Amino acid sequence: MKLLLFGIAKDIIGGSVFELPSGSKHPKNVLELKHILVQLFPEFAKLSSFAVAVNSQYAHDDEALQINDEIAIIPPVSGG
Amino acid sequence: MKLLLFGIAKDIIGGSVFELPSGSKHPKNVLELKHILVQLFPEFAKLSSFAVAVNSQYAHDDEALQINDEIAIIPPVSGG
Amino acid sequence: MKNTFIDIVDEIDTAQVYTHLIDAHSGGICVFVGTVREFTNNEQVISLEFEAYKTMAINEMQKIAEEATQKWSLNKVVIHHAVGLKKVTEAVVIVGVSSAHRDACFEACRFLIDTLKKRVPIWKKEVFSNKSVWVSAHP
Amino acid sequence: MKNTFIDIVDEIDTAQVYTHLIDAHSGGICVFVGTVREFTNNEQVISLEFEAYKTMAINEMQKIAEEATQKWSLNKVVIHHAVGLKKVTEAVVIVGVSSAHRDACFEACRFLIDTLKKRVPIWKKEVFSNKSVWVSAHP
To answer: CB contact, 8 Å: C97 with chain D?
Structure first.
């Protein structure tokens, strides 16, 4: 499962794409993905918040994740 | 005493400048001038309102008029 | 005020106005442009004609700009009004401000156009196919 | 919506945006431009760097434009955001609307910029002489 990274998420993980370790269990929904990220990269817990987008739309915590979805980590936005 | 005219005041009087009849008594203040205008041109009474400017500033009814002042009739403004 | 740009013009130059509003201490620029629209109360407008008492109009616009800079923290203020004949879609007035923050931008810009409409000695005649009317003259 | 003009661009073109907003049924055009200012909390900013999740940002900007046209009677809506490195005084975002009346213009324009700042996936890094900071990332 591949994650697109932006803003500070790119700096935390060190790259613009992150592949979840192939050995690990795939997260079944957004909330599980968030937990995995915080475990792997504790810096995420220090952010004001972070969201997950699935196929270019904001996703709720209980939204299911499919292997072919385009999944992006959305740290606090600051456009404008 | 010469009056500058704009907008509908120009149409009512028929020109962009109006000289008060030389025989008539000069108005001593703005209110008197307004009364004279309405008497000479009753159409002024039909306007939503009209103001008088003295030397390019809005004037109160009790403001005195001097012979050398630049006096203008200000019908309801509608800029913008 | 050197950061105020007030004028009565034959043609509104929106690019020139924007250039004037650009400012290193401002994070926001808000601009309102009044344009001629084709219909007023379902009647088709051919053109608008604007007439100004120029010296007094500039005085009043200057006072409005000063009032705005007293109420809000503004870095630049522009008020330009056009005179003469204006056709559908043409700009007749432009007001704009720049400020550090957008609250001040929006509020001040709104104040400028609202106050201009109330006080500045400029008159608008609506020209229709069969008549012309000085706007707001009669109740 | 054919009267909506949404884009992520390298450079904001204010003249092009204004041209898009001109409309025969509109009496008013309101535009807000966000620009880079030199100081943030008294620290001198050298530049801002913007990054967007482009497909999603355009989705969100489109939704915001649609929400605005549902709330107010608008004839044209523009939302453009810049990406890349922006220097002091450069435009980073422009939102604008045209409408028959100025109330709708001001309210809708304000809604567009406020909502864009909350939702559109774009990130701003402030570059100072001795550090750089992703804005709003930390509490």
So the answer is: no
D115 and chain C in contact, CB less than 8 A: no
What's the burial of D90, exposed, middle or buried (CB within 10 Å: 0-12/13-18/19+)?
A: middle
Touching subunits of B (3+ CB pairs, under 8 Å) are: C
User: Hey, what are A50's tokens?
Assistant: 């972070």
In chain C, whose CA is at the least distance from the CA of D13? C15
D29 and chain C in contact, CB less than 8 A: yes
Give the model's pLDDT for residue A16. Answer: 97
Residue-wise pLDDT tens digits, C54-73: 999 999 999 999 999 999 99
pLDDT at A31: 97
Put simply, the answer to whether C53 touches B48 (Cβ < 8 Å) is no
Rounded CA gap, B33 and B44, in Å? 12
The pair of structure tokens assigned to C117 is 């409409």
Looking up tokens 């306007």, which residue turns up? Answer: B47
D120 and D60 Cβ atoms separated by less than 8 Å: yes
C101 at interface of D, judged by CB pairs closer than 8 A: no
Is C112:C77 a contact under the CB 8 Å cutoff?
yes
Place of tokens 């109360």: C41
DSSP state, B46?
Answer: G
- Chain C's closest residue to B56, CA to CA, is C56
DSSP C30-46: EEEEEE--SEETTEEP-
| pLDDT band with cut points at 50, 70 and 90 for residue C1 | low
pLDDT digits (tens, 9 = 90+) for C106-139: 999 999 999 999 999 999 999 999 999 999 999 9
For residue C119, give the amino acid letter. Answer: R
How far away is chain C from the Cα of D92, in angstroms, using its nearest Cα?
Answer: 10
pLDDT band at D1 (very low <50, low <70, confident <90, very high): low
**For residue B40, what are the CA distances in angstroms to B6, B44, C122?**
17, 9, 24
Burial class (CB in 10 A: 0-12, 13-18, 19+), D53: buried
Summarize pLDDT for A48-69 with one digit per residue, the tens: 999 999 999 999 999 999 989 9
Token pair 């025989």 in the structure block, residue:
B23
Per-residue confidence (pLDDT) for residue B22, from 0 to 100? 81
Asked if C14 reaches chain D (Cβ–Cβ under 8 Å), the answer is: yes
pTM for the full predicted model: 0.96
